[in-house]
Amino acid sequence: MAFQLTPEREQELAEIFARYPNKMAACLPLLHLAQEQHGWVSDEVVTWVAEKLDVSTAHVFGVATFYSLYHTHPVGKHHVWVCRTLSCALHGADDIVKHCEKRLGIHVGETTADGAVTLHTAECLASCGTAPMMQIDREYHENLTLAKVDVLLDRLRKS
Amino acid sequence: MLQRTDHLTKRYGIPDGFTLTRYLADGGYVQARRALSMTREELVNECKAANLRGRGGAGFPMGVKWSFMAPTVAPGRPHYLVINADEGEPGTFKDRSMMEGDPHATVEGCIIGCRAIGAHVAYIYVRDELHLAKDRLWAAIREAKAKGFLGAKPFGVDYAVEVYVHSGAGAYICGEETSLLNSLEGRRGEPRLKPPFPAQAGAFGMPTTVNNLESIATVPALMRLGGDNFSKISSLHPKEGGSRLYGVSGHVNTPGIFECAVGLTLRELIYDLGGGVKGGELLAVIPGGSSTPILRADELVEAPNESHPLHAWHGMSVLDVPMGVETFRGLGTMLGTCCATVLSDKACPVLAMHNLMRFYRHESCGQCTPCREGSGWLERLLDTIVAGNGTMDDLNRLHEVANSIMGNTICAFGEGTAMPALGFLKKFRREFEEYIRTGGRSSTNRLALAQPAAE
Ligand SMILES: Cc1cc2nc3c(=O)[nH]c(=O)nc-3n(C[C@H](O)[C@H](O)[C@H](O)COP(=O)(O)O)c2cc1C
Ligand code: SF4
Ligand code: FES
User: Fold this and answer.
1) Which of B130, B255, B363 is nearest residue A129 as measured by Cβ atoms?
2) Could you count the other beta carbons within 10 Å of the beta carbon of residue B15?
3) Is the pTM of this model over 0.90?
């Protein structure tokens, strides 16, 4: 089925296009908007964006696959990104990653069987002064301990 | 020299510090209003007098960069201001603090910057993950617009200025300015060959200035003080002026962002501001983001020649050299983003290099063979060494691969990978050899001091 924005999101379109001198520049914002609604960038989403921008689906697909935060496959309802770069690694990021894998029963890159959580690692999230840290959906969680991680993950499984 | 200042951070940590009300109470937007009655030349000269070196990593003089823009705007060739808030350099977390803590300084800086380069539109490119920062910037833009500080006639002056936030989508390379421009235009974030430089053909093929977020957010302060006075805050005046944000993370007791006059030393950053080394003695420090070659704590300045810019520090610890763009180049490293990462002697330098080379392999955009293949080789050779199966040949090969990346790539990511790699190999040659000889038993084989639960 063809992809369509909800009426509320549809209103944002004009505002987005007005920011730029041409349509193509709205490519990243439109992919974000569509993914926010649909959860991932499906073929239908790619076609929809291409039509809105008057560019080829190949262009949009090329863009979607270049950036790590567009999901070109179905993913979990919630996303957990554990930063594993040096400042976080100096504060035990590797242990946090392993703990998340054990607690969720999945490996990095996988989604829990109930579809609730996808686990990712991330590269430096500009939060090095409060390492170790992870991002869950839009929120940063800093100065983590394994106990704090447990509370956060339990909350996710329930929501 | 340790001199704390609050020209940029006065509103940090105040509950309503990010609101327009608070910003106005502190004299906010007075400089933007004034700038709109000044000529481009006057503004560029003010910035030149401030000796503000770009805060994004390369340290290019900001006023000089502004002066590269065509003095008159040709018909059909609008100018653009693009602000780089991609902040992805490992160890760097300063721009985020400005966007979250004082977003109006950035918006005001954009108005002044637009006027100085003849632009009417500024795009602030923020990495996608920084949702709070983006929300704060958008809220600040809306507040400023509602007051008539932005739009068709800011402050009633017939000089339109619009500011927009543009979100990235997860790619470190988009911090490189030409990659960022492609990303802004709705393309894959692959760096472009230079020339043409952005001032000739940047965003949408039009004359463009790319300034780092801290650089632009500092402009209202330099206008308030006057360029010359601003420059004199720095102990490195007139080479490098003003105050800036210093960051410290890793094995220190009180990591964070601190605003100081330019010319702070690493010793002051680590011990006075960072509260000293956590869990051991200082082993080494990466001075300004992972692309800047590492310095060992036991290194001394080697500058016997009187004409050497660091001669005054000859024989002293590298930790006591003022942190400047040129002084740190003299040390064979770079100042970079001025956010240091500290390693205690409990951390294994082989693992630290492995962690960073994994990062670079992951983030190479893949356009140039030496970078794409070279970063992969570096990681795989280190995989072998860390697994305890390395040979001395592997160590030599690491050198060869890093050297073959240098100078053979489209963008500076290549050097940004090779230079820190060569830095680790040179400074920790003995540790690498022992690691290989003992299969890793010579090392703590840890980066972390303890399990996070135990902290
Ligand atoms: C691989 C790479 C990554 C970069 N990442 C950033 C970044 O995240 N933020 C930034 O401001 N500059 C970054 N830069 C530097 C920019 O290309 C550019 O020099 C800078 O934004 C100019 O701003 P400034 O003159 O105010 O420092 C990066 C450069 C390279 C080569
Ligand atoms: S040097 Fe690396 S990151 Fe830069 S353009 Fe070449 S492949 Fe891409
Ligand atoms: S290294 Fe994890 S936030 Fe920077």
Assistant:
1) B255
2) 7
3) yes
